[in-house]
Automatic annotation (TrEMBL):
Amino acid composition bias (Basic and acidic residues), ranges on this chain: 105-116
Keyword entries, A-Z: Isomerase
Every Cupin type-2 domain range: 30-99
Protein name in the entry: Mannose-6-phosphate isomerase-like protein (Cupin superfamily)
Lineage: Bacteria, Bacillati, Actinomycetota, Actinomycetes, Micromonosporales
Keyword Isomerase carried by entry: yes
Gene3D superfamilies, alphabetized: Jelly Rolls (2.60.120.10)
Isomerase among keywords: yes
Molecular function GO labels: isomerase activity
Cleavable signal peptide: none
Region (Disordered): 105-130
Annotated InterPro entries: Cupin_2, Flavonoid_dioxygenase-like, RmlC-like_jellyroll, RmlC_Cupin_sf
Length: 130
């Protein structure tokens, strides 16, 4: 059994992205977006994403709509939808997200957005194929 006190685990992680668990159909990832930072505009084809915010404040940009987000908020991003999440506060924006199916390499850890982008560009952040 996998068990996480997810808000505590997410709050303790300084990493931009850390994959906590990967299953056949879903993946659990925690993220910490620094003040002034963002996830970066993206589209996941064939992958739904659910993001739950643990601390900090930010702006969700989904399908051309913008909405403020804070601790306790949840945002759903359906497959094929352009999205970005921006930290608009002075403290880190901390969240956990579930991808279905998995989006990242199992157990991937990216300390910064730049490291995450480089791993993706190099093909080193591919989800498991089986």
């Amino acid at each position: 059994m996998e068990h996480f006190t997810i808000a505590t685990v997410a709050e303790k992680s300084p990493d931009f992205r850390r994959v906590l668990w990967t299953g056949e159909h879903t993946q659990l990832v925690i993220m910490t977006i620094p003040a002034g930072g963002e996830i970066g505009e993206e589209v996941h084809e064939g992958i739904d994403q659910i993001l739950t915010f643990v601390s900090g404040v930010g702006e969700a940009q989904v399908a051309g709509e913008k909405k403020k987000v804070a601790a306790g908020d949840l945002v759903v991003v359906p497959s094929g939808t352009k999205h970005n999440f921006v930290n608009t506060g002075p403290n880190p924006l901390v969240l956990y997200t579930v991808y279905g199916p998995p989006e990242h390499a199992d157990q991937a850890v990216h300390r910064t957005k730049e490291e995450a982008d480089a791993a993706e560009a190099a093909g080193e952040d591919e989800p498991p194929t089986e």
